[in-house]
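Quick one, T. Sequence first:
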Amino acid sequence: MVPKRLTSTIQIFTTMSRLAAAATLTGATTVLIGLAGAPQASAATAPISLGTAANYAVLAASTVTNTGPSTITGNLGLSPGTAVTGFPPGQVTGAIDTADTAALKAQNDLTSAYNAATATPTTATIPVELGGTTQTPGVYASPAGTFGITGTLTLDAQGDPNAVFIFKAASTLITASASTVDLVNGAQAANVFWLVGSSATLGTYSVIDGNIMAQASITVTTGVTVDGRALARSAAVTLDSDMIAPPVSVQAPVSTTTSLTTSVNPVPSGQPVTFTAVVAAGTGAAIPVGLVAFTDSSALLGVVTLDSAGKAALTTSTLAAGLHTITAYYIGVTGFGSSQSPQIFELIGWSWPAFRAMESAHRAS
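Structure tokens:
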């Protein structure tokens, strides 16, 4: 803690230091943040968490029935039903969970996800026919309670990989033969959600992206490609020579904040002082990991690894007498964005009489 009477002197002394350090600090910040990548915008609507239902490409309640050489990339689940037929000739690259604990948990999580999507506020009501239109991120409802796709529906994320699209159909979703969903400008199938109040029917040789969550059944007719999931809450999923693969989510890193404290200020020359940085995630309970760089103006003091509490501490006794501008930079890792702390102005080797002399000299000038 800096003594209160030093405040005016420090302000006088630090004003020029701040200006002098501005260019070098800006450069250091640019370099360090560059290591973590450019900042990315967050989506206006939060994605729907599927919980353990995300572990399944196909999930049904009563039966899963397949005809022909369908390929399910990932897991297939069924609960509380027990009848999974048509594999082979169909292929499942992952596990088939039938009426077991995992499938039951996935169904429960699907119910939670369905309810969360239902509760998400609608941002616009749009026509039933989606084909031939371009939609930007949002939560959409149909005035008739149904959605259909004939031709091509384009989903434009406008450069945001976290953009979320939710389509609420109170009754049915029906796609025409050879219809497609086209994702552009960063749109991700993982962040597209089809909420269907009764049943979904996907037309022959159509292509759809996203997570289909149907209250009742999902019928996937011949030759359909689903870049997403077919998740039925209370009835069957029916397949015929189809390809279904869960999408790979591309998420922008979670934003972080970095705080910085000092163990003592001012400190006599040659005595140790410890600077402690704490890095916290902007959202969620996860604790950031990685490295924190401590700088004295443009000079690097050291790089310290964050501990399990998100803290990094650097101790030094080699700072020269004078005023030092200390900053901590969290470099960031995959999943966590970079950030920098506010500056600390650390006083080394100065006594109170020296400050009074400096203040008198300044007032006289």
